[in-house]
Amino acid sequence: MKVIYKISYPNGKIYVGKDLTDSINYFGSANHALVAADFTREERRGFTVRREILWESESASNAEVSAMEVHFIRLLRANEPTVGYNRWPKASRDGGT
């Protein structure tokens, strides 16, 4: 199963990604420095993240999955620094996608 997922952090920011193997233990590849910068030492001692599957397919090609990933990044504005941790595709200067 191939999936598109959303990770929600306790600060309200999100990360959208794809997983071509549907690994239950995969939580994406958000930039560690970006995430770490948003949390104090105390906040880092314990917090919960949520992983939600937004879309799944048993038959989609890898290219179709990649296209769906971009679709959801733009739809949810996860590439806007105030909203999420995705840095690609670049958000437009006016804050839209």
Structural description of this entry:
The chain is of the alpha+beta class and 97 residues long. It has one domain. It has three helices and three strands, in the order E-E-H-H-E-H. A three-stranded antiparallel beta sheet has the order 2-1-3. A hairpin with a 5-residue loop joins strand 1 and strand 2. The radius of gyration is 14 Å and the shape is globular.
Which features would summarize this protein structure in a list?
single chain, 97 residues, alpha+beta, three-stranded antiparallel β-sheet, 3 helices
Please list the strands of the largest sheet in the order they lie side by side: 2-1-3
Helix content: 25-40%
- Which stretches of 5+ consecutive residues score pLDDT under 50? none
Main beta sheet: strand number and arrangement? 3 strands, antiparallel
Morphology call: globular
Query: Percent of residues in beta strands?
Result: 15-25%
Listing every helix as H and every strand as E from the N terminus to the C terminus, the arrangement reads: EEHHEH
Q: Give the averaged pLDDT, no decimals.
A: 94
Number-wise, the strands total 3
Distance between the termini: 28 Å
Domain count: 1
